[in-house]
Amino acid sequence: MTKTDQPLDFLWFIPTSGDGAYLGSDDLSRPADTGYFREIATAADRLGYSGVLLPTGVACEESFILAAHLAASTENLKLLVAIRPGIASPAYYARLAATLDRVSKGRLLLNIVVGGSAKELAGDGVFLPHDERYAHAEEFFHVFNRLLETGKAHLDGKYIKAHDAQLGFPPVQEPRPPLYFGGSSDAAIEFSTGVVDKYLTWGETPAQVAEKIATVRKAAADKGRQVTFGIRLHFIVRETEEEAWAAADRLISKLSDETVAAAQQGFAKNSDSVGQARMAALHGGRRDRLEVSPSLWAGIGLVRSGAGTALVGSPKTVAARLREYQDLGIDTVIASGYPHLEEAYRVSELLFPEIGLGGPRNQIRSSFGERQVFGGGGHAGNLRVVAGS
């Protein structure tokens, strides 16, 4: 069996800092609103996505609290919740994680976020240099994992001191909810291969992703471990190539050069993330070099920090690009699109059939077996397909 014989695990994104139809503009924007987030989550749950990612940061709604809210409104959807070591103790985070896993009946996934904006981290009370943050995170997860797996932990470390810590209630998942993580620096890769279950990369070119996977896989093997791999991408999928690229152009049609320059300057000044630097290097802030690989478009990264690339094209084209990543070892996709509610439908309806995913769950049959075509929703209902048509 080849890698592409297995359907991808396909998650969607909850835009907890707000959403919109145009980057760099407040036209048709949607503010952060829990009702809207619930709409996206319930749509993703029904449309066949396996889960949703909830990000973290000062501009985002708090991920654990929002995940608990969304758990009550969904049935199958897994909740990939950001956890940031350093802003709370591992024992406290273990209690949050165990309770959320119990409340959601075993639907919790955890996304470790160590890096990002040094300025924002300082506001959260984290002042460690880049590489030292990973040494701290290693001690953090020594305690966190043991609490979730055994209910007890003890560490008298350089950064973390937890003396005879205890966890009252175990998570539903055994031995604990899975740990996801993305980081491109040497320190990040060294940390990840000793701790995490799934390593995530942002949407770089296939050649760059192949190189990164090989590096991570070897580092994990050197420690006697194996990790699986996922990719974080945006999607602009339409029925034709022309429509897809027109939609990409439209997304940045109200984005000024001044806004792009300010965003790129801010990323360079405030972030010590190697991954962010790699994203910025794909396009260099220039609009004339946004297709950085066939169908891989970096226009989103002109103003968005973090994941900044989208796969653009018809369902067949985008499916072919995804198979290239699968052949490298990617088995999970964390996807998004603007606006997130409408694009969740487009990706499910157009792309899922091309990549072997089932689409909407628990659909109630709409006829007694005859093929029907949409007739506009009039009083007579839909139309039966006439033989020969």
From TrEMBL:
Q: Which NCBIfam families match?
A: alk_sulf_monoox, PRK00719.1
The UniProt entry's sequence similarity note says: Belongs to the SsuD family.
Per its record, how is this protein called by name? Answer: Alkanesulfonate monooxygenase
Per its database record, what is this protein's job? Answer: Catalyzes the desulfonation of aliphatic sulfonates.
Q: Which organism is it from?
A: Sinorhizobium fredii (strain NBRC 101917 / NGR234)
The record's Gene Ontology biological-process terms are: alkanesulfonate catabolic process
Which N-terminal residues, if any, form the signal peptide? none
Q: Which Pfam families match?
A: Bac_luciferase
The EC number(s) this enzyme carries = 1.14.14.5
Q: Which UniProt keywords apply?
A: Flavoprotein, FMN, Monooxygenase, Oxidoreductase
Q: Which reaction does it catalyse?
A: an alkanesulfonate + FMNH2 + O2 = an aldehyde + FMN + sulfite + H2O + 2 H(+)
Q: Give the enzyme class.
A: oxidoreductase
What SUPFAM superfamilies does the record tag this protein with?
Answer: Bacterial luciferase-like
